Amino acid sequence: MDHEPQSPAAPPSTRLNHAFFVGDWLVEPELNRIQRGGEKAHLEPKVMEVLVCLIQANGNVVSKEQLIRQVWQDTFVTDDVLKVSVWQLRKAFQDDSKHPKVIETIPKSGYRLLLPVHGVEKVKVPFSRSQILALVGASVLVLVIASAWIWYKHTQMGAAAVSAASVAVLPFADLSPDHDQEYFSDGLGEEILDHLTKIPNLRVSARASAFRFKGKNEDLRVIGRMLNVANVLEGSVRRDRSRVRISARLIRADDGDNLWSDSYDRDLKDIFAVQDHIARAVASALQLKLRTGKPTATPPTPGTTDPESYETFLHARYFSHMNDKESAIKALDYANRAIQFNPNYAPAYALRASIILQSGGMVWVNPSEATEKARRDTEKAIALDPNLADGYQVLSRIQSEVELNCREAEISLERARELAPGDAENLGHAAMLATCQGRQEEAIELRKQEVVLDPLRPLEYMYLAQDLRDLGRYDEALVVLGKTLDLNPSQGMAYEIRGEVYLAQGRLQEALAEMDKEPEDIFRDLGRALAYHALGQSQESDSALARLISQHQDDSAYQIAQVYGYRGEVDQAFAWLNRAYKQSDPGLMWLKTDLKLKSLHKDPRYAQLLKSLNLPE
């Protein structure tokens, strides 16, 4: 991989400051709007930028890579984000991808604008007093948002000032003859990353963000900047039967200097020593000491020394990251086999517990049976290895998400954080537990720390925005939501959360428009029920609520209670909250901070519910 410093050409501007016609559609980039006759459609800013890029190409094909480079200049996104943006453009223009009249897809290449473009001269008109006041108000709003953005960048970058003791582990390349060892090369990188999270004072980029560069020949300076790290560990794996050749090197991101490198040609049974050696070499190069863990009465197990058990474990973890039912079934099968090969393999029990817990949460298996099995596996994992962070992490999830006991969950998670201080997932869960117990300021600080380690994961920005919203910090929440949707324009819940911010600001029509954009049907109906109520359209609010109840009464009792609480229908709200409690609905983790339930706080039933959840009043 070539990492010589490059001087990338500055991409052309993706904004135009004047209106123009695309066919018979009036396009107004400054307003992120297109219209034709009486029809109007508002576009997300990035979607408008995609359109402008196609316009500037003068009917020529624009490659996917060029569009991504121009529109998302300093943000890593996948082709899927671009596809969603083009889909939104086609929807706005009422275009058909199979018989396009506006945007044509060129297979394996990119996209092309089919309609002619005509410029429009700006017309100067005298402003009325009301228009001047509107412009002043808009200017003040822009200043407020700009101030929030400056604050956010300052606070985030202050926390994220790149330390020399920071590293990202990129996915190791599979150079095996048949290129069929992806699970093994990914697993090796992830195992080394796990080793590094146990080093105190080392900032390790989370897997979710670092692995987004898989298969990307990206400049290391860009990777370092996007992941907030000073150093990058990369490598390759070449496997032939039981022999494995591993090459690894630690590189300084800003100038490409090689800090350490080595190659290993070993038998598969020696892979564990290689992983440990690489982690220790990285720590040494960065002048840090590897944490060995506190002495315990039960000596910690090294995991496994059985190659077959290890291989099936890597297969299980590979499929567990895919987050779909079919992959979860495969992951569970491999985890079972890993335990059969070695019944004392603690990490395999912790992984199986995580897979089962996720499957129960998605109702792919019976939830109560899943909880019981996951509990049993975590207890076994911790008994086998009291210094296994993953065991305490999964136990904390069971205690909070299923047993709804955030206080006990926090105790378990604290042990996981002691053992793996650099694990971003632990920070995210700690933030959730702080929110659960009403400590929102603390939750926000933990979220900020988490996004430093996991800067390319939209879900974490969305949760940060949710906490900011519920503290009344609306402008900051909108800035963070913008980051969420830059990373993933189809992120579930993000539009509903933004709609709630608009409701709180009194921007009711804009709120409804956001709810209509929400891709997840649960949150779309939740949002519509709230927005229509705020607009005084009770029939429409009732219809959205009825749809939510008919389709999701068994998995969204908490969301139904939110609607009743927001509408001031207290008895109905408590009826559904009690149902949520019986269903172990994880939404109850937001009970103390949820502004939609504020109307319930003075009712004695609210204090009783907090007591049932072991939460402070």
Explain what you see.
- The chain is an alpha+beta fold.
- Helices cover 55% and strands 11% of the residues.
- The chain has 25 helices and 14 strands.
- It has helices at residues 45-56, 64-71, 79-93, 129-159, 182-196, 207-210, 220-227, 271-285, 307-320, 325-341, 346-361, 367-384, 389-402, 406-419, 424-436, 440-453, 458-470, 474-487, 494-504, 508-517, 521-534, 538-552, 557-566, 570-582, 604-612; strands spanning 20-22, 25-28, 33-36, 39-42, 62-63, 103-106, 110-113, 117-119, 166-169, 173-174, 203-204, 231-240, 243-252, 258-267.
- Strands 9, 10, 11, 12, 13 and 14 form a 6-stranded mixed beta sheet that branches.
- Helix 11 packs antiparallel against helix 12 (367-384), helix 19 packs antiparallel against helix 20 and helix 19 runs parallel beside helix 21 (521-534).
- It is globular and about 70 Å long.
Key words describing this protein structure:
617 residues; alpha+beta; five-stranded antiparallel β-sheet; 25 helices; 55% helix; 11% strand; disordered N terminus
Mean pLDDT across residues: 85
**Sheet/helix structural class:** alpha+beta
The main pleated sheet reads as: 6 strands, mixed
CA-based shape? globular
Helix content: 40-55%
Helices, by number, come to 25
Terminal CA distance reads 57 Å
Percent of sequence in beta strands: 5-15%
Low-confidence sequence ranges: 1-13, 121-136, 138-159, 292-302
Radius of gyration: 26 Å
Total count of strands: 14
